[in-house]
Amino acid sequence: MSTDNNNTEISSNKTCPEGLDNTENSTDTAECDKILLYIEDQFFDVEITEDKFIAYEKKNSGTRRTGKVKEYNIDSMENIHFEYPVTIVNFDYQNKKAVYSFNEKNYNSLKELMIKIGLYDPNNVVKEEKIDRNAALKEVINKIGSYLKR
Description:
Layout: E1 2-3, E2 10-11, H1 30-34, E3 35-40, E4 44-49, E5 52-58, E6 65-73, E7 78-83, E8 88-93, E9 96-101, H2 104-116, H3 133-149
Antiparallel strand pairs: 1-2, 3-4, 4-5, 5-6, 7-8, 8-9
Protein backbone atom coordinates (compact mmCIF):
# COMPACT_ATOMS: atom_id res chain seq x y z
CA MET A 1 0.00 0.00 0.00
CA SER A 2 1.31 3.44 -0.81
CA THR A 3 0.34 6.91 0.31
CA ASP A 4 1.36 10.19 -1.14
CA ASN A 5 3.20 12.86 0.84
CA ASN A 6 0.16 14.98 1.70
CA ASN A 7 -1.94 11.90 2.56
CA THR A 8 -4.80 12.72 0.17
CA GLU A 9 -5.17 9.25 -1.24
CA ILE A 10 -4.37 5.62 -0.64
CA SER A 11 -3.86 3.35 -3.58
CA SER A 12 -2.83 -0.21 -4.34
CA ASN A 13 -4.15 -3.22 -6.22
CA LYS A 14 -6.13 -4.25 -3.14
CA THR A 15 -6.83 -1.31 -0.89
CA CYS A 16 -7.93 -1.13 2.69
CA PRO A 17 -8.62 2.17 4.44
CA GLU A 18 -6.47 2.70 7.50
CA GLY A 19 -8.23 1.58 10.66
CA LEU A 20 -10.62 -0.83 8.93
CA ASP A 21 -8.59 -3.84 10.01
CA ASN A 22 -6.58 -4.67 13.15
CA THR A 23 -3.08 -4.63 11.70
CA GLU A 24 -1.24 -1.76 10.05
CA ASN A 25 -1.27 -1.90 6.24
CA SER A 26 -3.02 -5.27 6.22
CA THR A 27 -5.37 -6.27 3.42
CA ASP A 28 -6.19 -9.74 4.72
CA THR A 29 -9.54 -9.09 6.40
CA ALA A 30 -12.92 -9.94 4.95
CA GLU A 31 -13.87 -6.24 4.84
CA CYS A 32 -10.79 -5.36 2.81
CA ASP A 33 -11.34 -8.24 0.41
CA LYS A 34 -14.67 -6.68 -0.55
CA ILE A 35 -13.11 -3.31 -1.43
CA LEU A 36 -11.90 -2.93 -5.00
CA LEU A 37 -10.78 0.68 -4.56
CA TYR A 38 -10.68 3.14 -1.68
CA ILE A 39 -10.04 6.81 -2.40
CA GLU A 40 -9.51 9.66 0.03
CA ASP A 41 -10.12 13.00 -1.66
CA GLN A 42 -10.63 16.53 -0.39
CA PHE A 43 -14.43 16.60 -0.13
CA PHE A 44 -15.26 12.91 0.30
CA ASP A 45 -13.90 9.39 0.63
CA VAL A 46 -15.09 6.85 -1.93
CA GLU A 47 -15.22 3.12 -1.47
CA ILE A 48 -15.87 0.85 -4.44
CA THR A 49 -16.89 -2.75 -3.82
CA GLU A 50 -18.08 -5.35 -6.30
CA ASP A 51 -21.63 -4.07 -5.99
CA LYS A 52 -21.51 -0.59 -4.36
CA PHE A 53 -20.14 2.90 -4.93
CA ILE A 54 -20.13 4.56 -1.50
CA ALA A 55 -19.28 8.24 -0.98
CA TYR A 56 -18.59 9.58 2.53
CA GLU A 57 -18.86 13.39 2.62
CA LYS A 58 -16.21 15.36 4.51
CA LYS A 59 -16.15 18.72 6.25
CA ASN A 60 -14.64 21.64 4.36
CA SER A 61 -11.24 21.01 5.97
CA GLY A 62 -11.17 17.66 4.17
CA THR A 63 -10.04 15.81 7.26
CA ARG A 64 -13.19 14.57 8.99
CA ARG A 65 -16.36 12.99 7.67
CA THR A 66 -19.72 14.72 8.12
CA GLY A 67 -21.64 11.49 8.64
CA LYS A 68 -23.50 11.89 5.33
CA VAL A 69 -23.13 8.81 3.16
CA LYS A 70 -24.40 8.26 -0.37
CA GLU A 71 -24.56 4.67 -1.51
CA TYR A 72 -25.14 3.58 -5.10
CA ASN A 73 -25.69 0.07 -6.46
CA ILE A 74 -23.12 -0.29 -9.22
CA ASP A 75 -25.48 -2.25 -11.46
CA SER A 76 -27.92 0.71 -11.38
CA MET A 77 -25.36 3.37 -12.36
CA GLU A 78 -25.97 4.53 -15.94
CA ASN A 79 -24.38 6.90 -18.45
CA ILE A 80 -21.05 7.07 -16.63
CA HIS A 81 -18.93 9.93 -17.99
CA PHE A 82 -15.35 10.92 -17.17
CA GLU A 83 -14.80 14.61 -17.92
CA TYR A 84 -11.29 15.88 -18.47
CA PRO A 85 -9.40 18.21 -17.79
CA VAL A 86 -11.75 19.12 -14.91
CA THR A 87 -11.59 15.49 -13.62
CA ILE A 88 -15.30 15.15 -12.95
CA VAL A 89 -17.08 11.80 -12.92
CA ASN A 90 -20.83 11.87 -13.35
CA PHE A 91 -23.50 9.24 -13.77
CA ASP A 92 -27.24 8.77 -13.66
CA TYR A 93 -28.72 6.93 -10.71
CA GLN A 94 -32.45 6.43 -10.22
CA ASN A 95 -33.24 9.31 -12.61
CA LYS A 96 -30.88 11.71 -10.81
CA LYS A 97 -27.45 12.96 -11.82
CA ALA A 98 -24.56 12.25 -9.41
CA VAL A 99 -21.41 14.33 -9.87
CA TYR A 100 -18.05 13.85 -8.16
CA SER A 101 -14.87 15.82 -8.64
CA PHE A 102 -11.53 14.13 -7.96
CA ASN A 103 -7.89 15.08 -7.96
CA GLU A 104 -6.23 13.74 -11.10
CA LYS A 105 -4.60 10.68 -9.55
CA ASN A 106 -7.85 9.51 -7.93
CA TYR A 107 -9.78 10.28 -11.12
CA ASN A 108 -7.40 8.07 -13.12
CA SER A 109 -7.56 5.26 -10.53
CA LEU A 110 -11.36 5.27 -10.64
CA LYS A 111 -11.43 5.38 -14.43
CA GLU A 112 -9.01 2.43 -14.68
CA LEU A 113 -11.13 0.41 -12.24
CA MET A 114 -14.39 1.19 -14.08
CA ILE A 115 -12.78 0.07 -17.34
CA LYS A 116 -11.38 -3.07 -15.69
CA ILE A 117 -14.72 -4.16 -14.19
CA GLY A 118 -16.59 -3.34 -17.41
CA LEU A 119 -18.67 -0.37 -16.26
CA TYR A 120 -17.01 2.11 -18.57
CA ASP A 121 -15.75 1.62 -22.10
CA PRO A 122 -13.98 4.72 -23.44
CA ASN A 123 -14.35 3.34 -26.99
CA ASN A 124 -18.15 3.20 -26.73
CA VAL A 125 -18.81 6.72 -25.50
CA VAL A 126 -21.69 8.14 -27.49
CA LYS A 127 -20.18 11.10 -29.32
CA GLU A 128 -23.52 12.72 -30.20
CA GLU A 129 -24.66 12.88 -26.61
CA LYS A 130 -24.27 16.38 -25.28
CA ILE A 131 -23.07 16.56 -21.71
CA ASP A 132 -24.18 19.68 -19.89
CA ARG A 133 -20.75 20.59 -18.53
CA ASN A 134 -22.00 23.87 -17.11
CA ALA A 135 -24.64 22.03 -15.05
CA ALA A 136 -22.03 19.52 -13.85
CA LEU A 137 -19.62 22.31 -12.89
CA LYS A 138 -22.42 24.24 -11.15
CA GLU A 139 -23.28 21.16 -9.11
CA VAL A 140 -19.64 20.72 -8.04
CA ILE A 141 -19.40 24.44 -7.18
CA ASN A 142 -22.63 24.20 -5.16
CA LYS A 143 -21.24 21.20 -3.25
CA ILE A 144 -18.04 23.10 -2.50
CA GLY A 145 -20.09 26.11 -1.39
CA SER A 146 -22.16 23.96 0.94
CA TYR A 147 -18.99 22.53 2.47
CA LEU A 148 -17.60 26.00 3.04
CA LYS A 149 -20.81 27.17 4.75
CA ARG A 150 -20.55 24.44 7.41
